[in-house]
Amino acid sequence: MPTDVTDREGCRRMVKDAADHLGGLDILFNNAISYGRGNEDACWDATLKSGLNAVWAASMASVPYLAESGKGVILTTGSVAGTRFAWSTPAYSAAKAGVVGLTRWLAKDLGSKGIRANCLCPGLIETPLWHNPGEPYDATFQRWVEMTPLGRAGRPEEVARLALFLVSDEASFITGQDIAIDGGFCVGMRFEVDV
Ligand SMILES: NC(=O)c1ccc[n+]([C@@H]2O[C@H](COP(=O)([O-])OP(=O)(O)OC[C@H]3O[C@@H](n4cnc5c(N)ncnc54)[C@H](O)[C@@H]3O)[C@@H](O)[C@H]2O)c1
User: What are residue 164's DSSP bridge partners?
Assistant: First the structure.
């Protein structure tokens, strides 16, 4: 059900249509974000609309269905750029920090309905966000690889495995958390000059 997540009503409609189509919902995964690289208002608005407002709208729209499920889960993709340090645009940092705060509130407020809420926070992951297929990676990507203790970018399937764990019954007592998946980037960035 293609949806532009900058459209708040569209997010709510997407959740309802999905629940109608599937006969209910067990999981909501807020993953999309669109953002420009500038600091102007238009960039701020698009990033916050897609990266934070949409999470709010879709999450609240999903509550009745997730409560009905009895083991509902809201999982949101944050970023170490929002939770552990400042990087990217101010809007991206704000949106990604915002979803962590929202997730904590959702976990507290919805726990009595049996609904869990968590964030996964990737570091550098090799996806089309960084380059178009067949094109070289830019200097920022290369530098981040060098700064990551494991010496490489993460793979999408590694993030998918964390997502699957967090929405599964295996994670039945984990809620309100932001969990980094970053190859050690945040705990041990390899700077060019060691001090
Ligand atoms: N790749 C990384 O290094 C990295 C690091 C930290 C966090 N993340 C986060 O991971 C998530 C996935 O990003 P990715 O790396 O796969 O990037 P990506 O650009 O490959 O994927 C983003 C997806 O969002 C969709 N999207 C963009 N704007 C949309 C809109 N307005 N409405 C609906 N869908 C829209 C795109 O179609 C695309 O499928 C994002 O939340 C991103 O912030 C990625």
Answer: none
Pocket test for ligand 1, best of 125, 138, 141 (most atoms within 8 A of CB): 125
* Ligand 1 pocket, residues with Cβ under 6 angstroms: 3-6, 31-34, 50, 77, 79, 122, 124-125, 127-129
Between 19-28, 65-74, 141-150, the lowest mean confidence (pLDDT) is in: 141-150
Whether 166 shows a pLDDT value over 80: the answer reads yes
Residue 15, SS3 per DSSP = helix
Q: Taking the domains of the chain in order of start, what are their residue ranges?
A: 8-181
How many CB atoms sit inside 10 A of residue 78's CB?
Answer: 27
CATH C-level class of 8-181: alpha beta
Q: Report the share of the chain in percent with pLDDT over 90.
A: 75
